[in-house]
Design goal:
Layout lengths: L4 H15 L5 H26 L6 H16 L24 H9 L2 H28 L6 H29 L2 H18 L10 H29 L4 H25 L13 H13 L1 H5 L11 H12 L1
Helix pairs in contact: 1-2, 1-9, 2-6, 2-8, 5-6, 5-8, 5-9, 5-10, 6-8, 7-8, 7-10, 8-9, 9-10
């Protein structure tokens, strides 16, 4: 799975740039980007039915391998390019890859997007991975923890399906980013007090809001990153952001595990210190997103502007 992730995560912005017009790119990026966590959620729901005992695990892995192999077959028949270019940007050549990376490194706007994006991807991965460990010390059942995790993902998918077409039409990238980032940070802050409440309302509501804001932010941030870093290729900035998020996710999980309370904690083995750590990190990166448009190298939609000029001149 690990070697496949870079290809899965970097492909959406590149394919939406090649195959979709400006009116549908965010929706296309959302569908492709969020298919990954949606598949993960399905796996978490289905796997327990396929493996009811440890002896069933080899068969479960075999079934997953068969399904994955069959799903990969259509990729051999996907053309490299559409028969007719859908937009001017898909026909232009890009600078060499090393030059594109240098352009990104020198772009302050890129870093102002990368920092919150990678942090929130890492935080989301950490929270979703440790949700059962976070809730069970306070008496929540595994079923209740599973429902909270399902709400985190399913509500997020629904919210992204609603917001993506709206932004596709309005192109109000920056407004949505600056609205969603504080919501995400506040959710991580509020979640500190959710497990000790010992009721399902707080975890369910916060997970729902957090999922909706996080999943809505992903395609908007990725597509806007392509706009403001043009002529850098869509896949370059995307894969760097995703790689940063996955790396931070692993780090946050290790740190959270180290911060878990011991047997003498009240309650035993609680993860309150890990939630505080997560909230502090989430709040700390908010200024980076809020600074967009005020500092950096501009917030022009460079790709969109180029396409409009090209269309007028055609």
């Amino acid at each position: 799975m690990l070697p496949a992730q870079p290809f899965v995560l970097s492909a959406p912005t590149r394919y939406s740039d090649l195959w979709f017009s400006p009116q549908g790119r965010i929706s296309a990026t959302a569908a492709m980007s969020l298919a990954n966590p949606f598949g993960g959620a399905l796996g978490q729901l289905i796997d327990p039915f396929l493996a009811t005992s440890p002896s069933d695990i080899p068969n479960m892995i075999l079934y997953i391998a068969i399904i994955s192999s069959v799903a990969a077959i259509p990729s051999f028949f996907i053309p490299a390019l559409p028969p007719t270019p859908v937009s001017p940007s898909s026909t232009l050549s890009r600078p060499p890859i090393l030059q594109q990376i240098i352009l990104l490194i020198r772009s302050l706007t890129f870093w102002l997007i990368f920092i919150p994006f990678a942090t929130y991807v890492g935080s989301f991965n950490s929270l979703s991975s440790l949700l059962t460990q976070i809730l069970t010390p306070y008496g929540y059942s595994e079923l209740q923890s599973g429902i909270a995790g399902a709400l985190l993902i399913l509500v997020g998918l629904v919210a992204a399906a609603i917001t993506s077409p709206i932004v596709d039409r309005s192109k109000r990238y920056l407004l949505l980013i600056k609205s969603l980032v504080p919501i995400i940070a506040i959710c991580y802050l509020a979640f500190i007090w959710a497990p000790p409440s010992k009721g399902v309302a707080a975890p369910y509501v916060i997970c729902s809001i957090l999922g909706a804001a996080s999943f809505s932010l992903v395609p908007i941030a990725l597509e806007w990153l392509v706009e403001v870093t043009w002529p850098v290729g869509p896949e370059v900035g995307s894969v760097i952001c995703w790689a940063g998020g996955q790396a931070l996710g692993g780090i946050f999980i290790v740190v959270s595990d180290a911060l878990q309370g011991g047997e003498d904690a009240k309650p035993a083995f609680n993860m309150q210190r890990a939630l505080v750590f997560q909230a502090v990190i989430a709040m700390a990166v908010v200024p980076a997103a809020m600074a967009l448009g005020w500092v950096g190298d501009g917030v022009r939609n460079k790709r969109l502007e180029m396409e409009r000029v090209a269309i007028r001149e055609a």
